[in-house]
């Protein structure tokens, strides 16, 4: 294994908060403000060459009493190098926003919209941040741990 998480820590020593490699899954937690810079590096540096954003999701740590409450998780892959890396960015509930990565990986468009829809995490600079799974009139974000499971939603009908 190429120890990509360690190399990322060397490149961004003050911005990579923690790193680990559990069962071959290399992970780096980076500071929120370093996301775009680190993502650009991961895509363009020949040693990393991450040409695919495989997935982007979020985790709500409310019941685990995480501070900050959310982690946004990015999974990158390189076809040329056949390696992968997970990047996590922690963000608080009061300012649940990150910059978009759609300019680097167009696939981020749909992933970011899904995270917005389900968790309410905004992606600043996103070209079309709107609901993707729930209807526009839906109130709230259903994958948040404090979303009331029995909440009644407004009924919608055909638009005339």
Mean pLDDT: 94
Let me know the CATH homologous superfamily.
Answer: NADH:ubiquinone oxidoreductase Nqo5 subunit
Q: SSE order, as H and E? A: HEEHEEEEHE
Number of helices: 3
Reported for the largest beta sheet, the result is: 5 strands, mixed
Shape: globular
CATH architecture: 2-Layer Sandwich
Strand order of the largest sheet: 1-2-5-4-3
CATH top level label: Alpha Beta
Class by helix and strand content? alpha/beta
Strand content: 25-35%
Low-confidence stretches: none
Number of strands: 7
Distance between the termini: 58 Å
The percent of residues in helical segments reads 10-25%
The total tally of domains equals 1
**Rg for CA atoms:** 17 Å
Would you tell me which CATH topology applies?
Beta Polymerase, domain 2
Overview of the structural elements:
By secondary structure, the protein is an alpha/beta fold. The chain has a single domain, classed as NADH:ubiquinone oxidoreductase Nqo5 subunit (Beta Polymerase, domain 2), CATH 3.30.460.80. It has helices spanning 4-11, 35-44, 108-119, and strands at 16-22, 25-30, 52-60, 70-78, 83-91, 97-99, 122-124. The strands form two sheets. The protein has a five-stranded mixed β-sheet. It has a two-stranded parallel sheet with strand order 6-7. It is globular, with a radius of gyration of 17 Å. The termini are far apart. The model has no long low-confidence stretch (mean pLDDT 94).
């Amino acid at each position: 294994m190429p120890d990509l998480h360690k190399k990322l820590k060397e490149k961004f020593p003050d911005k990579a908060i923690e790193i680990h490699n559990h069962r071959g899954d290399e992970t780096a937690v980076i500071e929120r403000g370093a996301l775009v810079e680190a993502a650009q590096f991961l895509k363009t540096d020949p040693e990393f060459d991450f040409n695919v954003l495989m997935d982007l999701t979020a985790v709500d740590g409310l019941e685990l009493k995480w501070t900050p409450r959310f982690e946004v998780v990015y999974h990158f892959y390189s076809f040329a190098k056949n390696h992968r890396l997970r990047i996590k960015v922690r963000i608080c509930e009061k300012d649940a926003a990150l910059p978009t990565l759609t300019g680097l990986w167009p696939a981020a468009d749909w992933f970011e919209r899904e995270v917005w829809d389900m968790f309410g995490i905004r992606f600043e600079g996103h070209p079309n941040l709107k609901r993707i799974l729930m209807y526009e009139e839906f109130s709230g974000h259903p994958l948040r741990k404090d979303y009331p499971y029995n909440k009644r939603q407004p009924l919608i009908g055909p638009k005339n």
